[in-house]
Write a structure and sequence with these properties.
- This is VWFD domain-containing protein.
- InterPro entries: Mucin_vWF_Thrombospondin_sf, TIL_OTOGL_Mucin, VWF/SSPO/ZAN-like_Cys-rich_dom, VWF_type-D.
- Keywords: Disulfide bond, Glycoprotein.
- Pfam families: C8 (PF08742), TIL_OTOGL_Mucin (PF25962), VWD (PF00094).
- This protein is an alpha+beta fold and 263 residues long.
- Among the domains are: 34 residues, no CATH class; 69 residues, no CATH class.
- Helices cover 20% and strands 12% of the residues.
- The strands form two sheets. A five-stranded antiparallel beta sheet has the order 3-2-1-5-4, covered by helices on one side. Strands 6-7-8 form a three-stranded antiparallel beta sheet, with no helix packed on it.
- β1 and β2 form a beta hairpin.
- α3 packs across α4 and α4 runs antiparallel to α5.
- The radius of gyration is 19 Å and the shape is globular.
- The structure holds calcium ion.
């Protein structure tokens, strides 16, 4: 099971409840993690074994029922994402979030651009996925995030938001090659030496695959299908064998930040 915190504020619990919580503090995501994957930017995934026991935090309690996931640290079932999120602050001195204000209200000049760019999610590019994963919620998150990125990193928020939908499609079995040289490109060629053609970007692959650290391609714990900003999966072709870069690493130059709990 996977709990995802995408673009820093869109959370899907282990039981499948989705909500938005823009917090500025440190929060408890889950009180135990089998593996944590982080894209070094705005997205965190916590992976649990399917038969793992009940947990608590922003990722919900993992009892198979999405309806009770807004249980506060004080063990109250609430309906407000803000009340729920605030209860899981790690430091009580950090101020509570007061209200989820739509960022397009604050930056109306960005709204048109955001809606235009995010329309890719509801458009032709992703049409094979629309039946499997309803796009509306992802579109709205995309508009919200694209409005919220006020300077620098403009495209990063947008690309992360589209990548979140591509990721959901991937997990539903629909792989969409949506990146182009104009839209959120992955510059693999940067890593190829002069005259070399070794590294390639691939949007789709199986959940378990051969890597330099896992040459047999045998996985004990399931890894989600990965795409895009989150993974930058690059394939290295060496003779008859295919090796992939480690998940979330860029060409193995940096290791995936996986933390194993000590208990
Ligand atoms: Ca639950």
């Amino acid at each position: 099971a996977t709990c995802a915190v995408e673009e820093g504020s869109h959370i899907t619990t282990f039981d499948g409840k989705t909500y938005t919580f823009h917090g500025g503090c440190f929060y408890t995501l889950s009180d135990i993690g089998v593996a944590v994957m982080w894209d070094r930017k705005t997205t965190v995934r916590v992976l649990l074994e399917p038969k793992h026991g009940v947990i608590c935090g922003l990722c919900g309690d993992f009892d198979g029922d999405a309806r009770n996931d807004f249980t506060t640290q004080g063990n109250l079932l609430v309906s407000s994402a803000i009340e729920f999120g605030n209860s899981w602050k790690v430091h009580s001195s950090c101020p509570d979030v007061e209200e989820n204000i739509h960022p397009c209200t604050v930056a109306p000049n960005r709204e048109h651009w955001a809606k235009l760019m995010c329309s890719i999610i509801k458009g032709e590019t992703f049409k094979d996925c629309h039946q499997k994963v309803p796009p509306q919620e992802y579109y709205e998150n995309c508009v919200r995030d694209s409005c919220a990125c006020d300077s620098g990193g403009d495209c990063e928020c947008y690309c992360s938001a589209v990548a979140a939908y591509a990721q959901a499609c991937n997990e539903a079995g629909v792989c969409v090659a949506w990146r182009t040289p104009e839209i959120c490109p992955v510059f693999c060629d940067y890593y190829n030496g002069p005259g070399e053609c070794i590294w390639h970007y691939s949007p789709c692959h199986t959940p378990c695959y051969k890597t330099c650290l896992n040459p047999e391609g045998i996985c004990s714990s399931p890894l989600p299908n990965l795409e895009g900003n989150e993974s930058r999966i690059l394939i290295r072709l060496t003779g008859t064998q295919t090796f992939y870069s480690e998940p979330n690493s860029i060409l193995g130059l940096s290791q995936i930040p996986i933390f194993h709990p000590s208990h």
